[in-house]
Amino acid sequence: MKWLKPFKKASVQQVARLSKVAAISAVMGVSAFTGQASAKADFELGYPEKEELTIGFIKLTDMAPIAIAYEKGFFEDEGLYVTIEAQANWKVLLDGVIDGRLDGAHMLAGQPLAATMGFGTKANIITPFSMDLNGNGITVSNEIWAQMKPNIPKMADGRPQHPIKADALKPVVEKFQSEGKPFNMGMVFPVSTHNYELRYWLAAGGIHPGFYAPHKGDTSGQIDADALLSVTPPPQMPSTMEAGTIYGYCVGEPWNQQAVFKNIGVPVVTDYEIWKNNPEKVFGITEEFYNKYPNTTIRLTRALIRAAQWLDANDNANRPEAVKILSQSNYVGADYEVIANSMTGTFEYEKGDKRPVEDFNVFFRYNATYPYYSDAIWYLTQMRRWGQISEDKSDEWYKELAAKVYRPDIYEKAALSLVDEALVKLQDFPDFESEDGFRDPQTHFIDNLVYNGKKPNDYINQFNIGLKQGDRI
Amino acid sequence: MTDASVVSQSVNEGKSSPLSFLAGLGIAVNPGKVFSTVLMPIIGIVVFLLIWSGAARNIDTSLGKFPGPVVVWEQFGSLYQEHVTEREKAEAFYQRQEKRNAARVAKDPDYVPKIRAYTGKETFLDQIATSLVTVMSGFLLAALVAIPLGIAIGLNKTLNAAVNPIIQIFKPVSPLAWLPLVTMVVSALYISPDPLVAKSFLNSMITVMLCCLWPMVINTSVGVSSLDRDLINVSRVLRLPALKHVQKIVLPASVPMIFTGMRLSLGVAWMVLIAAEMLAQNPGLGKFVWDEFQNGSSNSLARIMVAVIVIGVIGFGLDRAMLAIQRFASWDKSKATH
């Protein structure tokens, strides 16, 4: 990271120069190429090497930064002509990025990590931009909800007390087991956030979600399982549950709210309650793409940062407009009301039980877009916990892999060049001078454990259910 | 005024009436036959619409009521409206692009401006066009291979014996089974930095071709081998050289069978293409249906129904078109009937 040094020095002066630069760019108009005009000796953002790009996504509300960057012209401001394409499922999407059909995509945070590690398809995928925080929920079918409900403590007004823990589900699963019936649940991909969140929630309530054993060729993830988890593409979750193939699922929006609208299930817990402000999707590209087209990558990141900022601006004031865009059939395509339910700060649990969750979808606040190494390492710890990483790894290994995939260096370039053009404010970003890529030890997990990204092995050893240091299936 | 005359009058007047639509498709409007060829189909359609709307009202899906004819008709309108809006957006896109190109050339004189195609979504009408182009290219490609091959097999018993087992084994295979193989082979072999046609187009086209190939080969070879002995004798008497024999005797005599094969395969190809587009997420009507299904919005079912009707009408149109061509190309008009 040699080039970082002169750049960092410059950023100190930038703060002082901020007002001056703002005046200049205001005069020049906010065009794509002011970066070129106000160029400095240390870092000059050139024209994009590749201008026509195809970006893939899965129909989930958290693809919003991509749709907004397109619709609000942020991509075009960078001189990028982007085609946005919905993908059938996460595997097709990842293969598309690897074989070059897609230049970049809305990805599960675990995908670039697993691909770089070689769990599943091996490829060097990097991420310069984290797309959002939170945004998922766990939904169970009406039948399961009816059996769970008596086990949930009530509030004074008779509504269930939140967060609902998996303790309430445990007797139901035990009943299924005693009858010899498998308790099936859906998640979207073996390395998806949803898989780890569902597992985290189940395990915190004493329900074993099963181990993976890739070294033995077992990638079903159902060894020793009380609840059997399997893959279903997000948009098909509600219909699969309706068909009775699964009893519940963990998925992003709008597919939890869809279940409420269709009267087929009840969302019991959001990932905000499982782990407050957990990192969600990332924007993934191949390392080769960045090496070949550095300017294009930085410009893509710039457009996405601006889109994320727009999404959270003025306390979510733009959200209704964003929901309208997302409800177009070429983006998420679900009804306005369904998407609006979660995007505009509320979440409907049981039909009629609508509660405020201001931060259900966070796109920019709390440094949501900065690719923290600690976020990557949390996913790696869960991969180790459930056996997807079958061998013990040192703390250094976790850090190295995270640094290989998560690229705050690209993000920093993009952010500082935007600051330079007064399109964003420096105080909205982490302090690039001192940032080491690790969030402070994080609390607010549903089981009250503390996560310190610098000590992944110590973290893994805390769990009751799951592999610990030295364990092997 | 009798019913029949009312009907024939409206045929002459209204451009938008369903009768002129039928007339345009080559159904003869003869006052004497109006009853059986025009009136009854209309009654049939009306009864169908009634049953449909009655049934729709009683089917509750998790996406709301099953769409009846009126809702579906509204979606026709809204899909067209979306198309118009998208075209306006495309226009604005090109204007912005020109400005941006001009600004860049002013700053960077070496830059060679390039106009890039609109990046927005494909509308329903675009998807129809894509599907039609795909099916026709696959079909023509198959004809180019299948007809010469069929003639060769039909003429030569030895070749027939050699090729027949292969054809018999591949014929019953659904082309959808080929799809994954086609996809992998195309992505492995078709590598170009600036491809002429998209890979997805090639995948769909080859799948269509595979599905058209066998009925055409078989029908052509059967047509050729069941040539009338008299015609063969004529050719012998005239001592026609091999190529002339094919051109003057074999082809004209087997045209009805060749076209039967082509009509059959085009019908199947159209069905398979929709399924292939759905499965492989290749642009076209199949993808439209699948995307709408995934969206799960309250309009989705009605939009899918629109697509179903359009697919049906196009399939019917393709079949009629083939029939018309067959009539035109065949020397024995009496044999070319539906």
Detail the topology: elements first, then pairings.
The complex is a heterodimer of chains A (473) and B (338).
Chain A: H1 4-28, H2 34-37, E1 52-57, H3 64-71, H4 74-77, E2 81-86, H5 90-99, E3 104-107, H6 110-117, E4 125-130, E5 133-134, E6 136-141, H7 142-148, H8 170-178, E7 183-187, H9 193-204, E8 211-213, E9 218-223, E10 227-231, H10 237-242, E11 248-252, H11 255-261, E12 265-270, H12 271-274, E13 282-286, H13 287-292, H14 294-316, H15 319-326, H16 336-343, E14 346-348, E15 354-356, E16 361-362, H17 373-385, H18 395-405, H19 408-420, H20 456-460
Parallel strand pairs in A: 1-2, 1-3, 7-10, 7-11
Antiparallel strand pairs in A: 3-13, 4-13, 5-16, 6-11, 6-12, 8-9, 14-15
Helix pairs in contact in A: 1-19, 3-14, 6-18, 14-19, 15-16, 17-18
Chain B: H1 3-13, H2 18-24, H3 34-57, E1 60-61, E2 64-65, H4 69-107, H5 124-155, H6 157-170, H7 175-189, H8 199-225, H9 229-238, H10 242-280, H11 285-295, H12 300-329
Antiparallel strand pairs in B: 1-2
Would you kindly provide a written description of the structure presented here, covering whatever features stand out?
The complex is a heterodimer of chains A (473) and B (338). In chain A, 40% of the residues lie in helices and 15% in strands. With 473 residues, chain A is α/β, with parallel strands linked by helices. In chain A, strands 2-1-3-13-4 form a five-stranded mixed sheet, sandwiched between helices. Chain A has a five-stranded mixed sheet with strand order 10-7-11-6-12, sandwiched between helices. Chain A has a two-stranded antiparallel ribbon with strand order 5-16. In chain A, a hairpin with a 4-residue loop joins strand 8 and strand 9. Chain A is globular. The N terminus of chain A is likely disordered. Chain B is built from twelve helices and two strands; from the N terminus they run H-H-H-E-E-H-H-H-H-H-H-H-H-H. In chain B, strands 1-2 form a two-stranded antiparallel sheet. Chain B is mainly alpha-helical and 338 residues long. Chain B folds into two domains: 56 residues, no CATH class; 215 residues, Orthogonal Bundle (MetI-like fold), CATH 1.10.3720. The N terminus of chain B is likely disordered.
